[in-house]
Amino acid sequence: xxxKPSVKLVxxxxxxxxxxxxxxxxxxxxxxWLWPHRLSxxxxxxxxxxxxxxxxxxxVVGALLALAGVLMQVLLRNPLADPYILGLSGGxxxxxxxxxxxxxxxxxxxLPIPLWAFAGALITMVLVFVLAQGRGxxxxxxxxxxxxxxxxxxxxxxxxxxxxxxxxxxxSMLFWMMGDLSYAQLSxxxxxxxxLLMALVWxxxxxxxxxxxxxxxxxxxxxxxxxxxxxxxxxxxxLTGIAVSIAGAIGFVGLIVPHLMRLxxxxxxxxxVPAATLFGGSFLVIADTIARTVLAPHQLPVGVLTxxxxxxxxxxxxxxxIRIR
Length: 325
Known about the structure:
Layout: H1 5-27, H2 41-76, H3 88-105, H4 113-133, H5 140-164, H6 167-178, H7 188-203, H8 205-212, H9 215-220, H10 225-247, H11 253-265, H12 269-293, H13 302-324
Helix pairs in contact: 1-2, 1-12, 2-7, 2-10, 2-11, 2-12, 3-4, 3-5, 3-6, 3-10, 4-5, 4-10, 7-10, 8-12, 11-12, 11-13
């Protein structure tokens, strides 16, 4: 199917938005604009050692959450599904808070907080996978209910840890739960794995189109719907787990970005997947740049800013969808 000229322009704009957002993040900060005039050695250190790594981490997290949101909405056939709906962020948060608590009380800092969070997300993924299968036939309702119940359990544990945790670690805990990129770092090994997962999702775009049409239509087209379902579930869980382990629970990106891109480029996942990836990454880079500069020298958790942007934007999109119907 040929791509409409307007959609081509959107995709070109999104591609250009990637370097533009990174340039903005490197140039703008609490110390003012540092680009493109001549830089001192101290300014170069700020750009290359602090701003650029944080901007790259923000782009990767935004892209991962947007991709995971696309997959979850196909998986559950629910436009309200987001990457956190099955409890993955809850499990990651519980383990991350345990890491903060052990570091604050016992001085156990040998295991980084991102690894604690990723372990929690993986455990949640396995729990939902095992419990949702059960003994009967597979259904999206079963996995959704299982994820919601597990998320509620993690939420109770989070409240308990926050109530009993050391006061010295409480601020770090709260910032992490609200989504914070202050200490986000990505090693080359992480980047390689992240882009491999993204490539796998892009290669499955045609299969996602079939799944979105429903189980009966997928079976008529010869698609193994149950095998594909668990494959998409694992991919979405890994994408979410990596994103949460890097920056904490940043809300609304995985919910809003797929909706917005679907309205602009259409429901064909061959276009929706790259569009959501590019826009999600650039959106979070810009949001994080604003969060760390708007009240400088104080920094806002980027998750707070994405929520402030996401709530009215989602209500606007919902209103437009109702009018179209």
